[in-house]
Amino acid sequence: MANESRPCPCDIGDRFDYGGRGQEVQVEHIKAYVCKPASSTDKAVIVIHDIFGWQLPNTRYMADMLAANGYIAICPDFFVGQEAWKPSNDWASFDDWLKTRNAGKIDKEVDVILKYLSEQCGAKKIGVIGFCWGGAAVQHLMLKNPHLKTGVSLYGVIRFFDNRSNLLHPTFFIFAEKDDHIPLDQVTLLEQKLKQNCKVDYEVKIYPGQTHGFVHRKREDINPQDKPYIEEGRMDMINWLNKYL
């Protein structure tokens, strides 16, 4: 995602050659990818995709990783049928594209998914994670939605904290030290606001030497120097969910 003043030339990274272990379902007006763990559980995680959409294999890989760790994982199409961004698109049109895909206007879809998880999957404790565009959406939900238990925002552009930083739920923020789209001074400012106003548990962590998208858009075998940080980011995410769900 972009820093407001500069649209992100968001690199799709290493596109995983990955088919997915879950299945696609229709939940009212929303298509979604669902993966369930081997044994039954009442814990679920909503996975919010990045600008490349709900079908990106990398994001489904992350959903399957959550299922392997005992969670019902669901990755809905939060663009609701609108086209995801493609690497071949002209970046000059990114701002216009983004106007019709607002990370702060997903409440209706989230309510539909929460109902589905509760009624169809038996979920009682539900968290949310999101990458890039989805990371910003997590920030919005942690400030607003009373029904979620916790959230992990991965390199989400910081945009919902201008006039409030009183998170409703424990939130973990993952940032990359060398993220071209999220300057570290913005991260520092976010930390200051949270320190002043936040009444719930939170953590802001910056991963050394990493770039935007590192947790889900880099493959360890292609980026051996980044492997420890990719694995650490994924483990930190799982540990946070385990703690609060």
UniProtKB/TrEMBL annotation:
UniProt KW ATP-binding keyword: no
GO MF, one annotated term: hydrolase activity
Domain Dienelactone hydrolase: 30-245
Main location: cytoplasm
Keywords: Cytoplasm
Top-level taxonomic group: Eukaryota
A Pfam family this chain is assigned to: DLH
Protein name (record): Carboxymethylenebutenolidase homolog
GO cellular component: cytosol
Location in or out of the cell: Cytoplasm, Cytosol
Family from the record: Belongs to the dienelactone hydrolase family.
Coiled coil: none
